[in-house]
Amino acid sequence: MNIKRILAIFYKELQDIKSNSNITVMFLIPILLTYLWENLIPGMPSGMGLSLGMMFLIVMVGMYVPAMLIAEEKEKNTIEVLLFSPATSLEILIGKGLLTFTAILIISLLLLVLTGIYSQLFIIFTGVFLTTIFSIATGMIVGLLSPNQMATGVIGTPVYLILLLVPNLSIMDIEIMQGLGKVLPTYYFLNMMRFAIEGKGFAEMYTELAVIGGSVVIALLVLLYIFQRKGFRN
Amino acid sequence: MITVKDLKKSYAEKPALKGIDFAIKKGEIFGFLGPNGAGKTTTIKIVTGKLKADHGQAFIKNMNVTEEQKRIIPMVGVVPEQANLYERLTIKQNLEFFCRLYQVSFLNIDKYLELVELKEEENTKVKNLSKGMRQKVLLIRALLHDPEILFLDEPTSGLDPASAAGIHRILMNLNAEGKTIFLTSHNMEEVDKLCDRVAFLDDGEIVAAGSPEELKLKYSDKKIVVVIKTDNGSEERTLDITGSESADQIAEWIKADKIISIHSTESSLADIFVEITGRQVR
Ligand SMILES: Nc1ncnc2c1ncn2[C@@H]1O[C@H](COP(=O)(O)OP(=O)(O)OP(=O)(O)O)[C@@H](O)[C@H]1O
Ligand SMILES: [Mg+2]
User: Fold this and answer.
1) What pLDDT was estimated at residue B149?
2) Same domain assignment for residues B109 and B79
3) Which CATH number fits the domain that encloses residue B107?
4) Residues surrounding ion ligand 2 at CB below 5 Å
5) Do B89 and A9 touch (CB under 8 A)?
6) For B199, phi and psi rounded to 5 degrees?
7) Residue B150: pLDDT above 80?
């Protein structure tokens, strides 16, 4: 693996995203939502807006951005430049994921500053870190399965919705949703955030860590499988 | 340098290549000619390892293109049929990214941008470029890592005559430096001017191959055109180049001082193509 080539792809993506409003808007929405939830909705428990904003950030940005970036390269055939270059497929995937990953870490830091919640930062970042990897891997799967950018919507939207809405509804005590939520890493991510804000330690969130960690492993395995079967071809 | 053996390829049961063989020597400019849908792009894609053939093999410097792709990549520059540049990046950003991927210096960028007169546009986003400008950027991109072999799929399509001539000059210089060039084209004059050897591809088969001169000789219609004086001006007569009848006729005109000019008709590659395939190109 060659770090310089990974950074080359990272840097190219960074230059590209600056003038891609489809994507820059995605980065701004979670900031806006968090602000609204924390400040304008009465009766929202403190920290809830932050947790929801974080989840939105991780799921929407984490999945949508890699999915779009991969599908766009396939649609416009620029992927050929990458594939037919000394870069290996793994370097391409990492280079593409790195930008989203960095962006999410930076924006989540921003959200913490914005809301002034600084309790158990290490736990919060562990949760963000792992769930983001899950989300990016899932987004890449969507990108690999989509022949073009339009298709990412068709394939990706059900996934985003399930990952976002189910945990949302289950914290509102809707019963079926609670059952469903029990298999989603985003549900456990919300738990983790809540516990962290309440000041609890790692010792009380083994289940959360196990489920999120397990989802990361599963998502990476599926990504690897699809990648080996299909690569960047349509 | 490049060897292709019995390549066959079908898309969804429909054959695109029906068994193609050719060999290109080091330092040659080899032209691949053929009408739309003949299989030129398919051949380039297979030889550059982007597409797998159903049957047959392709070798670059004796390396199988599918098995040793990563070793071949640094030696090869490709101009694809369809521009695949990053539209939201500038010309310079596109080219610099390519240099970083190949880990070569940026030095060539300026050199070539000046050569194709795009230096002033270097900070323009690709989405704002004309087709011809994109074509030039694609060519530069293929040259940045100084490859030994170039594959150019219609390198001058969409270029005005002056720009095309500029590209031809660059290609001839590169060839003089020893680079091997494989190009496809619809432009017969271009191929005639540039190529050491050409192959005519029609419907997935090579129907004729050789140097442009050989082909012209082989398929030339062997006629001469004589312009003679007449009472009310001049007149053009076409005669067979062989046979004593023509000789007698010309001798007679010479004696009567009637001849204004004599020239042979030379088939152009386009004529030959039509003759071989019974189809019009372009
Ligand atoms: N991806 C594809 N899927 C299905 N059929 C294809 C595909 N690509 C090419 N073909 C078919 O294969 C044949 C050869 O196409 P190819 O693109 O190689 O022709 P070409 O000689 O490059 O033509 P042109 O001069 O128009 O560029 C055509 O009949 C075309 O319809
Ligand atoms: Mg073609």
Assistant:
1) 96
2) yes
3) 3.40.50.300
4) B 40-41, 81
5) no
6) -130, 135
7) yes
The answer, for B77 touching chain A at a CB cutoff of 8 Å, is no
Global confidence as pTM: 0.85
Q: What would the mean pLDDT of B53-81 be, rounded to a whole number?
A: 93
User: Do B168 and B239 fall within a single domain?
Assistant: no
Interacting residues of B164 by C-beta distance below 8 A, sequence separation 6+ = B156, B187, B190
| Residue B48 contacts A where some CB pair is shorter than 8 Å | yes
Question: Which residue do the tokens 């079926």 mark?
Answer: A176
**Closest residue, chain B, to A232 (C-alpha):** B50
Q: In degrees to the nearest 10, what's the CA dihedral of A98, A99, A103, A105? A: 10
The pLDDT value recorded for residue B174 is 94
* Shortest Cα distance, chain B CAs vs residue A38, angstroms: 36
Mean pLDDT of A105-114: 93
Tell me whether B98 touches chain A (CB under 8 Å).
Answer: yes
Residues B244 and B185 in one domain: no
Ligand 1 pocket, residue B38 CB under 6 Å: yes
List pLDDT tens digits, range A27-62. 999 999 998 888 888 777 778 888 889 999 999 999
Dist. CA B242–CA B222, nearest whole Å: 8
Contact across the interface for A78 and B101, Cβ inside 8 Å: no
Same domain, B120 and B198: yes
Examine the domain organization and report whether B206 and B241 are in the same domain. Answer: no
* Closest to B151 (Cα-Cα) out of B127, B123, B180: B180
- Domain assignment present for B276: no
Chain A within 8 Å of B86 (Cβ-Cβ)? yes
pLDDT band at B282 (very low <50, low <70, confident <90, very high): very low
Judgement on whether residues B124 and B194 belong to the same structural domain of the protein: yes
Residue with tokens 């060839």: B175
Place of tokens 């068709």: A154
Beta-bridge partner residues of B233:
B230
Q: Which ligand is nearest to the CA of B186?
A: 1
- Asked whether residue B273 is assigned to any structural domain, the reply reads no
* Nearest by Cα to B41 from B94, B75, B78: B78
Q: Which of B218, B217, B199, B201 is nearest to B209 (CA)?
A: B199
Place of tokens 């594939």: A83
Interchain pair B101, A20: CB under 8 A: no
| Minimum distance, in Å, between the CA of residue A114 and any CA atom of chain B | 32
Counting Cβ atoms within 10 Å, is residue A199 exposed (0-12), middle (13-18) or buried (19+)? exposed
CA neighbours within 13 Å on the CB side: how many for A38?
21
**B139 in any annotated domain:** yes
Tally the domains of chain B. 2
B142 lies in the same domain as B241: no
Contact at CB, A20 and B88, closer than 8 angstroms: yes
Residue A142 has pLDDT above 50, yes or no: yes
Interaxial angle between packed helices A62-75 and A89-115, expressed in degrees from 0 to 180 and rounded to the nearest 10: 150
Q: Which domain holds residue B49?
A: 2-211
Is the same domain home to B51 and B118? yes
